[in-house]
Amino acid sequence: MKRKHYFYNREFSGFYGKILSIFLILALIIYLLPIVWMYISSARTNADFINAPLKIPSHLYFGNYVKAFKMAKIGYHFIISSIITTVSVFIIIAFSSLAAFSFSRLQYKGRDLLYSLFFLGLILPTQSFLVGMFVMFRVTHILNTLFSVILPISAIGLPIAILLIKAFFDSLPSSLEESALIEGANVIQIFWYISLPIANAIIATVIVFNTINAWNEFMLPFVMIQTERLKPLTTSLYVFSTKHSAKLTLKLAALTIIATPMFIVYFVFQNQIQKGITAGAIKD
After folding, report:
1. CA–CA separation, 112 vs 116, rounded Å?
2. Superfamily of domain 71-278
3. What does the alpha-carbon distance between residue 143 and residue 149 come to, in Å, rounded to a whole number?
4. How far apart are CA 64 and CA 46, in angstroms?
5. Under a CB-based contact definition with an 8 Å cutoff, are residues 38 and 258 in contact?
6. CA distance 61 to 57
7. 3-state secondary structure of 62
8. Domain extent listing, the chain
């Protein structure tokens, strides 16, 4: 007698599908409400916001963006954040792609142990090595330089990047590489001309994820950089917690200016991210 699979029953899946849809819609609303509130509140006068912070304003005031841009010197610190993000992501992609190819395709002594050590970066929180890193950077005179932020961000981003790219390389058939070896190609040529171009989807995913993480990083630049001219956007906003702490709408306007580029990046590349995440899921 054929066993009945209730999971595939149309009524069963339809009922629970509706429940799941309602739950996801509620979760999305809860997630979006603070963001929408930030955008609306950033375009209000400070007096109007203090009197009724949850009220929908009758008119919008966009002067907060101009004032916040000038007070926090957002244009200058935007360049600093761009440099930190660009260099960090470049280092992550360069080293993670090479390491992932090595762990996936090459055979050498200690490979599995070295691969396992990278996962310590996924287990250990940043706070656990922050003090030691601060002392090391101070002794080596790296403290209060952009590299005191770029190097930790790159190191933190490497483990997950290696994991994702290696999973993709593992899913690739070895026939192309074997054919290239027969034709006389070396390992570097195989990596550069065959494996890396095929991995463009997962590489794009890693770039987007690490761009967002590097751009939004606060704790590392806050601890490692005390020089005002080298602070990125996230820590430059500290001026609104000291000199202009009462001007809440200016702080919200500055946060809106900083957050918007990453929202745009994610929404523009969301299809590429989905393709990259599922790229290594099926073994050909």
Report:
1. 6
2. MetI-like (1.10.3720.10)
3. 9
4. 9
5. no
6. 9
7. coil
8. 6-41, 71-278
Q: What are the tens digits of pLDDT across the range 38-92? A: 999 888 888 888 888 888 887 888 888 888 888 888 889 999 999 999 999 999 9
Produce one character per residue of 77-96: b if its CB has 16 or more CB atoms within 10 Å, e if not.
bbebbeebbebbbebbbebb
CA neighbor of 207 nearest in space, from 169, 257, 146, 161: 161
The backbone torsions φ and ψ at residue 247, rounded to the nearest 5 degrees and listed phi first, read: -90, 80
Find the Cα–Cα–Cα–Cα dihedral 14, 15, 16, 22, rounded to 10°: 100
Q: Is 284 exposed, middle or buried (0-12, 13-18, 19+ CB in 10 A)?
A: exposed
Phi, psi dihedrals of residue 118, rounded to the nearest 5°: -65, -25
What Å distances lie between residue 75 and 203, 232, 237, 257, CA to CA? 29, 10, 12, 10
Does residue 127 carry a pLDDT above 90? no
Q: What would the mean pLDDT of 218-237 be, rounded to a whole number? A: 89
Q: Model's pTM, two decimal places? A: 0.83
What are the CA-CA distances from residue 218 to residues 153, 222, 225, 229, 255 (Å)? 11, 6, 11, 16, 13
User: Rounded CA gap, 7 and 9, in Å?
Assistant: 6
Q: What are the residue ranges of helices labelled H in the chain?
A: 10-41, 46-51, 63-71, 74-105, 111-118, 120-123, 126-139, 147-171, 175-182, 187-190, 196-198, 200-216, 219-224, 233-236, 248-268, 270-278
- Residue of 199, 100, 206, 84 whose CA lies nearest to 153: 84
For tokens 């820590």, name the residue.
Answer: 235
Number of CB atoms found within 10 A of residue 125's CB:
8
Task: Provide the residue count of the chain.
Answer: 284
